[in-house]
Amino acid sequence: MDFRNICIIAHVDHGKTTLVDFLLRQAGTFQQHQLLKDRVMDSMDLERERGITILAKNTSIHVGDTKINIVDTPGHADFGGEVERIMGMVDGALLLVDAAEGPLPQTRFVLQKALAQGLKVILVINKVDRPDARIDEVVNQTFDLFIDLGASDIQADFPIIYACAREGWCTPELNEVPSYLSGAKKGTLTPLFETMLSAVPAPKIIQDSFRMLVSNLAYSDYVGRMAVGRIISGTVKKNQKIFYHGLNALGTPIVKAFTITQLYTFEGLAQVEVPQLISGDIGMISGAETVEIGDTLTELDSTPALPRINVEKPTLGMIFSVNTSPLSGKEGEAIQSRKLRDRLVREIRQNVAIKLEETGSNDQFRLLGRGELQFAILIEQMRRENFEFMVGKPTVLYQKDELGNLLEPLERAILDLPEKYTGDVTRIFQERKGLLVKFDTSQASRISNRVRLEIDIPSRGLLGIRSRYLTTTRGEGLFSTQFLGYGPHKGEISHRSGGAMVADRLGETVEYGLLGLEDRGILFLRPGFPVYEGMIIGENSKENDINVNPCRAKKLTNIRAAHAEVLVTLSGIRSLSLEECIEWIDEDEWIEVTPKSVRMRKKILPQNLRSVKREERIQ
């Protein structure tokens, strides 16, 4: 059998998962009687709810006698680790670019990895049906991007396909697009299938002993852990004894033998058991419970290991802790430190971009990752597994140069927004030590009059800025980031201007009690919510904290005023999402996460043991 191994590169919401849907449908992967869902590759609930791809996933289609293995990769920079590890599994890539937005930061990040691997790239201009599409400009910008990233002459001579993934058609001829849009012609994705077969080279068949680099992990209740990767050379059969080359806890290379219990390959969305895997195919091998991502599987113990997968280092850290609040265990499973550690260890085994560090406390563990969204996704997954735990404020990972100067991670924020909000947005970023490096009005379309800003900003300056940006642009702004590296420390950055309103007793919030606190700031809780001493119920309008009583009820007496009582209700409550809580909290505060609630609290609960002054509590 002939093979083609291809990944799909795209920025968030450029139509990557929708395109895979129609590739599977038109290749005859599904039977006539099958009930099909949209975005079949988004298998996680969180992926469907948020409309983003989080995990890299494999599928395959058959075109004639050729099997095309397709890897759907995430489009958000926080999940870049998923992208980096699958590059060694493929020989080509579909670069999906929005016909209006053009190449965006994540496009650049993943394309750079693909070009460095020498992959052959096919450019797919998607969403050509958008009213603000500017196809010629986007093609030119993409070509400039290829040159800027050091593409070879062969790579820069890429084939171009114009597509509307939502309607399931494409064409290699730009002048045919209007006839497809008007309905005069009915199209399919056949030109894309033909281009994949002709432009992407078949994997090199190496007649040598079996070797495979583990690029991903899967788990089955029946056969346990399974190693996912491409067969570099040779063949492997069920019940065969092979070796894996890995690292022990100290980082020392080890070689261990194991017997293969099951072999699987991908057929459509299904994992099909097979008697053997051959060179060039992508498959799964079970039998080694301790195999890790980056290990090499070989037929002979004397065969040298392949280079391990290189993943960029984390830039943020977050503390995960056992839940110690008075309401612990009321809404979920109050896990002990051993179970919390086991869950975090399971996560780092599946995600090479996350690292785990021990802390001085037995109940707290430090997780290192790439961004707030990556942490938020993990926290949400643990919530849905019925866990209760606490997390702290994300902190930036600093470094020092040879002279001992402090260095911090820097990122480039690429903002696509309506032109009328430019002044307010630049002021927000300048307050966070941001430096405007590019003001591009060529992105302004004929209809929406948008501009693109590029701002270099410290990673810690991005904490808490996303919600302010979306509020300022009335939800119309697009926000993307690209990691630049480490640079000199930029100085102090203010976080939030107000302190916290903190409950001073155990009880339930009462409307009468909250009514008296409305003038003090912004409330986060509605009446009828359980609170305890040290729990945060709102944001104070002044910079210091304030201890308040939200449980105060109206006294019932037989004395009434002469005038009739007027019904007074709360004017507004600001409900914070998990991501907004992560952005809001300070260093002396926790987020308490349960399956039903997300609460914020002080690390020190008794009010007589903590200061309300900001300069004293943030130390």
Task: Please give a structural write-up.
21% of the residues lie in helices and 32% in strands. With 619 residues, it is an alpha+beta fold. It folds into five domains: 2-199, Rossmann fold; 211-298, Beta Barrel (Elongation Factor Tu (Ef-tu), domain 3), CATH 2.40.30.10; 316-396, 2-Layer Sandwich (Alpha-Beta Plaits); 399-488, Alpha-Beta Plaits, CATH 3.30.70.240; 500-592 and 600-617, OB fold (Dihydrolipoamide Acetyltransferase, E2P), CATH 2.40.50.250. The strands form six sheets. Strands 19, 20, 21, 22, 23, 24, 30, 32, 34, 35, 36 and 37 form a twelve-stranded mixed sheet that branches. Helix 10 packs across helix 14 (578-584) and helix 11 runs antiparallel to helix 12. Mean pLDDT is 81; it is low at 30-44 and 47-51.
- In the CATH hierarchy, the third-tier topology of the largest domain is known as Rossmann fold
The first-level CATH class name of the largest domain: Alpha Beta
What structural class do the secondary elements suggest?
alpha+beta
The major sheet is characterized as: 12 strands, mixed
Strand content: 25-35%
Total of domains: 5
Instruction: Identify the CATH homologous superfamily of the largest domain.
Output: P-loop containing nucleotide triphosphate hydrolases
Helix content: 10-25%
Radius of gyration: 27 Å
The unreliable regions are 30-44, 47-51
Spatial separation of the terminal alpha carbons:
64 Å
Shape: globular
Average pLDDT number: 81
Count of strand segments = 37
Give the number of helices. 15
| Assigned CATH architecture of the largest domain | 3-Layer(aba) Sandwich
